[in-house]
Amino acid sequence: MVKVGIIGLGKMGLSHYSIINAHEDVEVVGVCDSSGYVLDVLNKYTGVDTFSDFEKMLDVQGVEAAVISTPSKLHAPMVRACLERGIHVFCEKPFCLKPEDSAALADLARSKSLVTQVGYHNRFVGAFGEAKRLLDLGTLGRVTHVLAEAYGPVVLKPKGSTWRSKKDEGGGALYDYAAHPLDLLTWYFGRPESVSGTVLGHVFSSETEDEVYTTIDWGHGMSGQLSVSWSDESQRKMTTKITIWGTHGRINVDRQECQVYLRDDAAVPAGYEKGWNVHYTTGLTQEVDFYLRGEEYSAQLDAWIKRIEKVEVDGVGNFDDATVTDELLAAIARGGSGEVQHIVSGASVDVPPVPSGWWRRMKLRLKSRRSARTMRRA
Amino acid sequence: MDRLLFGDNQFFGVNHMSEEKARAQAMRFQSVDAVMSVLDSAYDCGVTTFMCTTHDRIAEVTQRMREQPERYADQVFYPCMPYAHKYANAMADAGVIGAIRQFLPDEGFFDAAMRGGKSLAKKDIEGVTTLLIDAEMKMFEGLKTPVIFLQNVVVDLLLGLGFVDAFRIFADHVKARYGAEPGFITMNLPKLLDALDKVGVDNPIVCANINKIGFRMCGGLDAYVDVLANRPFRPIAMSVYASGAIRPDEAIEWVTSLPNLEAIVFGASSRTNIESTVKLVASAWPLSVT
Question: Which parts of the chain span the membrane according to its record (chain A) (predicted)?
Answer without folding.
Answer: none
